[in-house]
Write a structure and sequence with these properties.
about 500 residues, OB fold (Dihydrolipoamide Acetyltransferase, E2P), BirA Bifunctional Protein, domain 2, 2 domains, five-stranded mixed β-barrel, cytoplasm, ligase, magnesium, Lys-tRNA-ligase_II_N
Length: about 500
Amino acid sequence: MDKDNLSGEKALIEERRKKLDQLRDRGSAYGNSFKPNNKAQKLHDEFGSFSKEELAEKDIKNISIAGRIVLKRVMGKASFATLRDSSGDIQIYVTKNNVDEDVYEDFKTWDLGDIVGISGKLFRTQKDELTIDVWDLEMITKSLRPMPEKFKGLTDIEARYRQRYLDLMTNSSTKEVFIKRTKIIDSMRKIMNKSGYLEVETPMMHPLAGGAVARPFVTQHNALGQDLYLRIAPELYLKRLLVGGFERVFEINRSFRNEGLSTKHNPEFTMMEWYQAYASMQDQMDLTRDIILNAAEAINCESKISWDGIEINLGNFTQSTLTNLVLEHNKDLSADDLDNSKKLEEFLNNNNIKIEKSWGPGRMLLEIFEETVELNLIDPTFVTEYPVEVSPLSRRNEEKPEFADRFELFIGGKEFANGFCELNDPDDQASRFVDQVAAKDSGDKEAMDYDQDYITALEHGMPPAVGVGMGVDRLVMLLTNQSSIRDVLLFPQLKS
């Protein structure tokens, strides 16, 4: 903000503080006794179709509403204002004829942003706008800072994220996104409950970094004198519940990954993870599809949508293996090349794709997929048969042991869900934990720790199961056509 604007805002705040002092002298400027019995949108819904004559005939009295003044026109003995509550806007009409003269004179000095309570009767103006003829009004909360300009709203992107309350206050489209977010999460919870899953809560602070391949946040527990890790994923705890006898569990959770900020990533994000014993991978792909379609229906989203300029058909779910997709999009690679480390390394180098010394053929194959295929997966696509090397918690495919029984769902070129048949062989899992520890010792900051307690749990016996993790934030982005994750998080992480 430039110096002139800062000076102007300071003067406005000083003027409002003088008004606050006057209000305090006469009583409280921050009351808590007014209890509205109506919402703006409900009034429009119930009476918006009534004509001027019908409203007069019905004589709808004792309407009370509380909201923020967002527009005001003072015209001598009569004034109009627009109040905004959590549901929307409604016009009010205040005159000397209907309210005490001193109250009316006070009202003329009230500012945009002040929160007020009014009571009155519904009518239609000469311009046919549904309006409340005010009989009583009171100041509830005095606003000391000016609202953003009424016509421009809050347009500064940085301010919208840092001061989300102003964004919500002035931009109805922002509020609608977060209302839809709640409806989407509610739809996800309902379909899981309907499918017989038990919702659970697992720890957010872990003694070991695990559950996914990602770099963790580290914190300190003073009383215990030990480091703890903010949850990367709840996976290993949810699978302990399978050992304990729960056969269908899910958690809508906050997870944390110590990675960079971007339009696609926030270090704190929301996922839904679920696990079902005795299920097939196809069962869970079908459920994943149903969750997405159910969420779209919950917010009246069409099957053909646009997301960040990309046209997507949510009614067209397809399925293919990772290797088939790599070959389809890279004609200079053959099927024999895909398990040949030298050929894969040569391909990566020729395409200026950076590789790490610790990578085997499975990791290199995944990198080729991520760099050359992902962006082309526009309509919903389930990708199956991931290399075991990059799937440390997944069960091996019995016919192709170099691959895991795993799938990922891509829409609009981005990953939305990751699922796999869970590894329940304690010896195989222990061996893969050893590989992860070796990778960490070699400098891989995303590799997992060796979790002995989880191995002990598996030694007690975990039934065969399939687990899936789905990014909630990204699903909301898709269904509300938002290009940045910051637009679907009320308070995204920002650099200080």
